[in-house]
Structures are given as C-alpha cells and as structure tokens.
C-alpha cells in the first residue's frame, strides 16, 4: 500500500481543496495522513484520513498583511509571513516524514520550508496550489496587483517593466530566508520564485480555463485539475434556510483574519429593500458584532452548497476557494478583493465575464448594490466556467496524478 503524507499551511482555505484529494487518494487504496490545523482534525479524521496538528510554532506566525498600506506592501507582508514560517514548517515536515515513513508527499504551496524538505527528501512530491500560480508567463501579467492581461505591444511593455518591480521586490524578501532553509538541507539556492515550483515533480493547480488565463508556456509539471470542491456537501442545510423565500446573495469573508467585516456591513445595507436576502459567513470574525435585520442572516459558518443552490449571486472577498465554489455552482460572483491573492482572483472573475470586480477601496453600499446587480446579469459566464470546472480532472484526477509519481522515474 502506498503511504501518502500531506502537509498544509495554517489556512483553512488551503485545506478545503486538499481534503477531497486526500479522500480520493484513500479511495484509490493509499494510506493517507496529513498535518494540518488543530481545529480541523476531527473533521478530517471523520473522512478516514489520519491527521495530526501542525507544530504550534508554525501556527504562531500569523498573517499581518491587513495592517499594511497599499497592495504591494500587503503582498510584501504576506511573503514575510511565509518566509518566517519556513524554518518551522521545514522542521515540522521533517519530523512527520520520520514518524510516518511515507512513499509520497503532497505539500502546500505556501509552506516554503516544507517544500525544501520535500525536495531534499528524495521522495516524489506534489505541490498543491489553491490560488493562481505566480509563475512568470508571456501570457499573464505579473502576479499580485490584479492587472488585466496584456493587449498588444503597450500591454507587453507594461508587463516587462512591472515584472521586476512587483516580482523582484517580493523575491528580495522571500529568497534569503528560504535559501538559508535550503542550504541547511543541502539544496542549491533559488534565484527566482519560479524555481521553487519548477523543481517539483508535480504541481496541482486547483483551477481551470477559462477562469484561469490561457498560457502557452505552462511548465510540464503543472496540472490544472479544477477547484476540487464537493458540490453536494455531506453537512445538511441550516434549519433557518427553509424560512427564506427571497433569492439569496451569499457573502463570504476570509477564513484568515483581514478586517473585511465592512464587506458584510455594505452588503446588508446596500441590498436592503432589493428583494434579495443576504446570508453572510464570517469564519474569522464575530458574527454577533455584525447587525443583520429581517433581510439578512450573519453567521460564523454555514455550508455553502445548499446556500448556493438558492443563490443568484455570491459576494466574495476574492478568496479562491469561495469564489470558485460559487462559480462551480454556476452562480455569478461580485468579488471585492482586500489583499493577498484576492486581486488576481477578482480580476479573473471580471475577465471571464463570470461576475464583477469592485476594489475594496471603492466599497460603499450603493456601489456594491450596483456591482451585484451587474454580476447577476453575467450568469451565462458563470455557467460557462461551471461547465469547464465540471470537465476538469477534479479530485480523482489529482489523486491519480499524485499516485502516478510513485511509478515515475526519480528526478532527484
């Protein structure tokens, strides 16, 4: 029996697409274990996957990007966090390998130290990337600001000039600590972020065209497997859902704190009197602090699948998981990005004409109402994306690709 060990970063949104893959690996006959968030262990184990908690030292390094001013400063703060975690998640995965004796590894793209350990281990490994890949491409703008794909010579010139500013700045923060971790494992230094992903035997990107930009230069190790979401969650609908007669607008905020509560406040106020019922989930906030009213429900958590079946629009913070889950149901999205990869996700919503994009600095109740109404008219684009997601390999295809590594020639 093949033994697979998975390792996640401390982000619930990164566990969500991984869990269906782990379940598919188990269904395929593999023995599967994962190191992940302590408060998710019972849920993971309920699906038959062995789970242990991440090292508390990894959990102690929190994201502070929401304190930064400006997109580039926020991205730099995120990179600083991942770099600071690298030393701890490297040691954590090294211990896990010693304890579990796996044949294959699956490692979160944001666990940079763990990726170094995976590369140094000599074991076949896959990288799980649950947000748009930051790889350089002739067909995609520099990752981060959420730029529209280049059109003609002016656009290509823009990308050529901005790439050193955007990616170069981030790499100057990222590479020194990561290369120290790599040196301790006997690995050669990285010169660009791309090197981190190109070194992996397999990269699972949990998205698909046309939501992701078409690229002629995808590396050969990248597989677009689709969002890997369960359209029929095992958890039943909340009891209060049956009492809602109006069409639903689902509002989501980040599972990692980033002060995005004003998205809920704007939705509740802006959609009042429109005949739409707001259901907002605030997994990293306090639902009790947010006023709702007769036309809204604000909860800490609720299963999204039953809500989306009655939804005409999803207002998201631009998180990849929430956005793609809505689109997988054919529900158009109004994306309001606050930071991190959210600007890239929101731009893809707009480019795919699967919804609308409203930058957080322009967020008001009136503008959100207009953006939601426009997004609702873009349901055909959302339906087109849903069909593409359904045709993607999904969790089963991702699991098959991972298991295929055990039969592939050793690259190390």
Could you explain how this protein is built, in words?
42% of the residues lie in helices and 14% in strands. The chain is an alpha/beta fold. Strands 3-2-1-4-5-6-7 form a seven-stranded parallel β-sheet, with helices on both faces. Strands 10-9-8-11-12-13 form a six-stranded parallel β-sheet, sandwiched between helices. Strand 11, helix 10 (320-328) and strand 12 (333-335) form a beta-alpha-beta unit.
Examine the coordinates and then state which fold CATH places here, giving the name of the CATH topology of the largest domain.
Rossmann fold
Mean pLDDT: 89
End-to-end separation:
23 Å
Estimated structural class:
alpha/beta
Work out the radius of gyration.
21 Å
Number of helices: 14
Query: Which H/E pattern describes the elements?
Result: EHEHEHHEHEHHEEEHEEHEHEHEHHH
Architecture of the largest domain, according to CATH? Answer: 3-Layer(aba) Sandwich
Spatial strand order of the main sheet: 3-2-1-4-5-6-7
